[in-house]
Design a protein that fits this description.
By secondary structure, the chain is an all-alpha fold. It has 5 helices and no strands.
């Protein structure tokens, strides 16, 4: 007869594990309408993740206004340095208006 192997597992009480977890994670309730909640759940499931992970991913992938400003300045500097293109504030504003018109389905004059 084969001898059995004895395995001992040391389990910590749930409150100890939870206390350690909450020391690094803050829980926040976000109130949204049921259709938004359901959509977030579907999106999370389709990606094989939790809703918490989905929201973390979305927040990380969405730039702030300051990040967008820095990206614009870096792109503008790169174009000036590498392509000799200098974009004036008026040209920038015109290009922004063209994008808004395109998104709204309005006719666009050439730049």
């Amino acid at each position: 007869m084969k001898e059995g192997v004895l395995v001992t597992a040391l389990l910590e009480p749930p409150q100890v594990v939870y206390r350690r977890y909450t020391a690094v994670m803050a829980d926040t309730t976000i109130k949204v309408d049921p259709s938004t909640r359901d959509r977030l759940m579907v999106l999370a499931r389709e990606r094989g993740m939790t809703m918490r992970d989905l929201l973390t991913e979305l927040a990380g992938a969405t730039p702030t206004q300051e990040e967008l400003r820095k990206r614009y300045e870096a792109t503008k500097a790169y174009c000036e340095t590498h392509f000799g293109v200098t974009l004036t504030d008026e040209e920038h504003d015109r290009a922004e208006q063209v994008w808004k018109d395109l998104e709204a389905g309005r006719p666009v004059d050439s730049l």
